[in-house]
């Protein structure tokens, strides 16, 4: 059995979210220059928000406070999902590696949130 996480970096959900951020940056580097302040910036901000909100929620003491940050992370993940669709539709790059990673982060985040919610019952 795993010992409880003592730092947000110990969370598998954060580790996967961080991998998603890195992949989002790598993909957005290939976007046209005209997207520097558009899609590139928005996509990066949303991806970073996922990992950052997981990190911030980790040290919150109350269950409701923790879950609020994890819910914001889930919202940013869905925003990122849209940016992947847009990237694909604009033919700006290959999103095939990012979609499964986004799905994995989403499932892990949902499971982690459920565990937090149930531990308060």
UniProtKB/TrEMBL annotation:
Gene3D superfamilies in the cross-refs: 23S rRNA-intervening sequence (1.20.1440.60)
Domain of life of the source: Bacteria
Pfam families: 23S_rRNA_IVP
InterPro entries linked to this entry: 23S_rRNA-intervening_sequence (IPR012657), 23S_rRNA_IVS_sf (IPR036583)
NCBIfam families for the chain: four helix bundle protein
Protein name listed in UniProt: Four helix bundle protein
Source lineage: Bacteria, Candidatus Methylomirabilota, Candidatus Methylomirabilia, Candidatus Methylomirabilales, Candidatus Methylomirabilaceae
């Amino acid at each position: 059995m795993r010992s409880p996480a003592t730092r947000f970096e110990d969370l598998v959900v954060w580790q996967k979210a961080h991998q998603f951020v890195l992949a989002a940056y790598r993909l957005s580097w290939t976007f046209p220059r005209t997207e520097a302040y558009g899609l590139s910036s928005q996509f990066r901000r949303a991806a970073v928000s996922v990992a950052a909100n997981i990190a911030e929620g980790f040290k919150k003491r109350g269950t409701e406070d923790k879950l609020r940050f994890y819910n914001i992370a889930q919202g940013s993940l869905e925003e990122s999902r849209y940016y992947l669709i847009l990237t694909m539709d604009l033919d700006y790059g290959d999103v095939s590696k990012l979609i499964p990673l986004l799905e994995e982060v989403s499932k892990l985040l949902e499971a982690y949130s459920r565990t937090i919610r149930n531990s308060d019952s």
